[in-house]
Amino acid sequence: MAEQLRIGIVGAAGRGRSFFGGFNAHPEARVHAVCDLNEEGARMVAAENGVERVYLDFDAMLDAGEVDIVVIGTPMPLHAPQAIAALERGVHVLSEVPAAVSLDECRALTQAAKRSAAMYMMAENYCYIRTNVLVRHMARAGLFGEMYFGEGEYIHELKGLNEITKWRRKWQTGINGCTYPTHSLGPLVQWFDQRVVSVCCFGSGHHYRDPRGDEYEQEDSIHMACRMANGGLVNIRLDMLSNRPHNMTYYSLQGTQGCYESPRGHGDRPKVWLQSRHDDPNAWHDLSDFEEEFLPDEWLHPSEEALRSGHWGGDYFVVADFLKAIVEGSQPPIDVHAAMDMTVPGLMSQQSIVEGYAWLDVPDSRGW
Ligand SMILES: NC(=O)c1ccc[n+]([C@@H]2O[C@H](COP(=O)([O-])OP(=O)(O)OC[C@H]3O[C@@H](n4cnc5c(N)ncnc54)[C@H](O)[C@@H]3O)[C@@H](O)[C@H]2O)c1
């Protein structure tokens, strides 16, 4: 292995660009190559960041044999094929979400990750939102008791963006079901520390048309009910079409000994009630009261590099966890099975609608 881990970013003129902050903050790695079909964009990003190599073809970047890690920031249907191609060449993969767009792809990706000596991690950055990290540590410490209900909502009106990044019109709003589940489901899977065993999905009907006059195949507000392995229920709402302000980060958690609600906007603050800490059962308390006690030190006192890399340190810690796993040879926190736990329920939700809102079992990638 080279002295510094050499990174190649594919989709570098789009989302891939946002990974520079995280990698630039880690001296053990450097971005060596960028790849994008958009040559002008790729050259611009390379020049801005002092990157040596520019590729227009992903296989050419892999075949050159000069990168140890690829970051996949391309449109959704390319995630699994590009990840598999890299893993088969022994190149580590940090992939954008979701991990794949079909069950067959999920199976093939899981098998490729199991066969490869290289690491796979899904970059589910909403799991690295500071408040979500704090709730995870509090849940692990048992503060909520037995967890039995949760909610995750990704409400992000992007009809306009569908016309610019046209792949979204097919892979996100062109399919009925929870096509973009991981930002909402990911943190809840981590809090429950349970996988989803079955899903049932339904929607609110169709109320919008695209600029060509075609109805969006996806219903405006999609609801995916998830039965967790411990019997708990998690509701996921995905809404990429309704005319309204965004709220991409709404979450709630209910357990036998406490509950959490994130803000819905308009001045609200992240809040908890915990039976073991609070006398009045009708009074909320600020989640931030628990930072000192439950946030890991690197989150409580983030370094300058972490803060500079974006999202209050979130972008830094995704990369930090991934690099640590590679250097130590340990499993990354969102390894291929965790990625499947966050991705496969969404794929089964699409089938649930096809089968008349049936409850369908969610396959466990650990058996693949
Ligand atoms: N985690 C997050 O918060 C977050 C935010 C935005 C997007 N995303 C994900 O990132 C991915 C990209 O989204 P985006 O909004 O940047 O899309 P985009 O269309 O703006 O960018 C994708 C880039 O990939 C390039 N590309 C397409 N096919 C390619 C190929 N075969 N080889 C090389 N480059 C290719 C395009 O030219 C483009 O520059 C999506 O999967 C999306 O779901 C995640």
Report low-confidence residues grouped into runs of 5 or more: none
User: What is the CATH-assigned architecture of the largest domain?
Assistant: 2-Layer Sandwich
Strand content: 15-25%
Q: What is the number of helices?
A: 14
**What does the overall shape look like?**
globular
H-E order: EHEHEHEHEHEHEHHHEEEEEEEHHHHHE
What small molecules does this complex bind? Answer: nicotinamide-adenine-dinucleotide
CATH topology of the largest domain: Dihydrodipicolinate Reductase, domain 2
Fraction of residues in helix: 25-40%
How many strands, which pairing sense, and closed or not: the largest β-sheet? 9 strands, mixed
Radius of gyration computed on alpha carbons: 20 Å
Count of all domains = 2
Strand order of the largest sheet: 14-13-12-11-7-10-9-8-15
By CATH reckoning, the class of the largest domain would read Alpha Beta
Q: How many beta-strand elements?
A: 15
Structural class: alpha/beta
Mean pLDDT: 96
Name the CATH superfamily classification of the largest domain.
Dihydrodipicolinate Reductase, domain 2
The CA-CA distance between the termini, in Å, is: 30 Å
